[in-house]
Specification:
By secondary structure, this protein is α+β, with helices and mostly antiparallel strands. The protein folds into 2 domains: 5-179 and 346-381, 3-Layer(aba) Sandwich (Aminopeptidase); 187-325, Gcn5-related N-acetyltransferase (GNAT) (Aminopeptidase, 3-Layer(aba) Sandwich). The chain has 11 helices and 15 strands. An 11-stranded mixed sheet has the order 3-6-7-8-15-9-14-13-12-11-10, with helices on both faces. A 4-stranded antiparallel sheet has the order 1-2-4-5, covered by helices on one side. The longest helix has 26 residues, at 356-381. The chain starts with a strand and ends in an 8-residue tail after the last helix. InterPro entries: Acyl_CoA_acyltransferase, FemAB-like. It holds the Pfam family FemAB_like. One of its GO terms (molecular function) is transferase activity.
Length: 389
């Protein structure tokens, strides 16, 4: 692929900047890459993104080719970056555009390759424009547009954008799309019992019964840092493979990815495991941010009622309260989270469509879709298990 070239900031008199095309996040040092963020989100860290690259989870035959965009100042310092991937399919994104691809193919166009601005396989809200300067964020977006137009890419898609950055995408003229996830909000709870006290009487009883049934006959441990040993990753790999094979057909992450994540960012990982007779039988993997706990993967080799809810949702609430975190983001989809105190929250993606006619069709679709999503969020909000009034 060819580099996107120079971009002029919108502000008159500003010096033009050059947006460079990289081959991998690993070509940058951890210090210079991480200096572009505030460290709150673990998924845009150098450690996480390079673990995906070095483990072969992205690149190669994965259909996720790293093409980060970068801006350096006159002294050669990295001042802005965009984690991006040339995509040959729409797998592992959690914002579904298969119908767009089908429509464009029926019209005689090639939807793939496309540009994906995201953290691979990770439906967690976070920064996508890694810079402290808004004008450089806009320059990165112009660079992404030029990259598409100069290399025959149909479109660019930025998914799970943190709310503070959405206006930059809107100012650049990208189309906005909304969806719904379920997040748990910490309203200053002193413990799980305090949280239960905010629920209706019926839901309190149900959650207590679910926790008792799930915990009966198993030992549950929360592991982080050096407490996570290779045998724990071996066990979790088995759980992950089983869940991945049933949900996606092929697990996205390689076994090496878990080892590298454990080596590079163990203090930002919370692994919740259930044991029977000293042997791990189920587990849930979470990542610890500055303000949030992010639930990612789960799996089990036993069929035990409510164990999924306990490991993924209730243990996450316990951990968030203990750490003083503001919320738990439990991943994509899952209406069953609603009854367990996780509330509907809007997520935003942004889309640049190169062909004017195709863009107009997508814009029309999104306008109609947004109305439906907004109505669904209102309806779901009325079904939360909290006491009324």
């Amino acid at each position: 692929m060819t580099a996107p070239g120079a971009e002029d900031p919108a502000a008159p008199g500003d010096q033009a900047v050059t947006v460079e095309l990289g081959r991998a996040v690993g070509q940058f040092t951890a210090a210079e890459w991480d200096a572009l963020t505030d460290g709150a989100n673990p998924f845009v860290s150098h450690a996480f993104l390079t673990a995906l690259e070095d483990s072969g989870s992205v690149g190669g035959r994965s259909g996720w080719d790293p093409v980060p965009l970068a801006i350096r100042d006159a002294a050669g310092r990295l001042v802005a970056a965009l984690p991006a991937y040339r995509k040959l399919h729409s797998q592992g994104e959690y914002v579904f555009d298969h119908s767009w691809a089908d429509a464009w193919h029926r019209a005689g166009g090639d939807y793939y390759p496309k540009l994906q601005i995201a953290v691979p396989f990770t439906p967690a809200t976070g920064p996508r424009l890694l810079t402290r300067e808004p004008r450089l964020g806009l320059a990165l977006l112009r660079g992404a547009e030029a990259l598409c137009e100069g290399n025959g890419l149909s479109s660019a898609h930025a998914t799970f954008i943190e709310p503070a950055q959405v206006p930059l995408f809107e100012a650049a003229g990208w189309l906005l799309r909304s969806d719904i996830q379920f997040h748990w909000e910490n309203r200053g709870y002193a413990g799980f019992a305090d949280f239960l006290g905010t629920l209706s009487s019926a839901r309190r009883k149900t959650l207590r019964k679910e926790r008792a049934a799930a915990q009966d006959g198993v030992e549950i441990r929360q592991l982080t840092g050096s407490d996570i040993r290779p045998e724990h990753w071996d066990a979790f790999w088995g759980f992950y493979q089983d869940t991945g094979a049933r949900k996606w057909g092929r697990p996205y992450l390689t076994r090496a990815a878990f080892t590298l994540l454990g080596e590079r960012m163990a203090e930002r990982i919370l692994l919740v495991l259930a044991f029977q007779h000293g042997e791990a039988v189920a587990g849930a993997l979470n990542f610890i941010g500055r303000d949030a706990l992010y639930g990612r993967y789960w799996g089990a080799r036993i069929d035990k009622p409510f164990l999924h809810f306990e490991l993924c949702y209730y243990q996450a609430i316990d951990a968030a309260i203990a750490r003083g975190l503001a919320r738990v983001e439990a991943g994509a989809q899952g209406g069953h989270k609603l009854a367990r105190g996780y509330e509907p929250v809007q997520t935003i993606s942004a889309h640049h469509i190169v062909h004017p006619g195709f863009r107009a069709a997508v814009a029309d679709f999104l306008e109609r879709e947004r109305a439906g999503v907004a109505q669904e969020q209102l309806l779901l909000g009325e079904r939360t298990p909290f006491r009324k009034g």
